[in-house]
Amino acid sequence: MVKIKREIDLRSKDFFASRRLIKPAFVKYFVILFWICFLVGVWTGVPGYMDWMRLKTENDLESLLLLKEEVAPLQEMSNQVALLEARFHLEQELDFSAEPIHEHVLAVKHEAKDYNLKIETIAADISGNLYFKGRSKDIKTLVLFNQSFENRPFTCSANIKSIVLDRGGEYSFEIVGSTKSQTGGDLD
User: Is the full-model pTM beyond 0.70?
Assistant: First the structure.
C-alpha cells in the first residue's frame, strides 16, 4: 500500500509577501515614476532641442554669409575673366570679318605654292566650309600644309578628306576646312 503524505503549510501570506524580492507596490510606483520622468523629459527636451537647432541654424547661416563675402571677389574676378575672353573672341571675329574671305583663301593658295602643292579648285559652301582640291608629290608636305591651314587665324578645323595615288605618282587630295565665322553669308 502506498502511503500518501500530505503536509499542510501553516505559513501565512504575510510571510510569503515579506520574502519576495520585488514588491508589487514598488513596481507600480517605479512605472509611474518612469512615465513622469519621460513626460517631463519630453516636455522640457523638445523646446531645448528646438532652441539648439535654431542656434545651430543661425551659426550655419552666419558661416555661409562669411563664406559668400570671401568668395565674392573671386566670383567677380571670374566674371571679368569670362568677359575678357568673350571680348577677345569677338575682337578676333571682327578682325576676321574686316577682311574679305577671298583674301584669306588667296593667302592659303599662295602658301600651298610654298609647299609645292597644286591647288586645282577652291570652293565654299553657305555654312562656311572651304574645300581645296589639288595634287601633291608626297603625303608629308600635304600633312604639313593641312596643319598650317588649320593654324590660320580664320580656320577652326581642317581635315584631309581624301588622298588618292594617281598613275603618275602624284597624290590627289581634298581638304575640308571650316571657318571660325560660320556666318553663312556669301564670300566677298
Answer: no
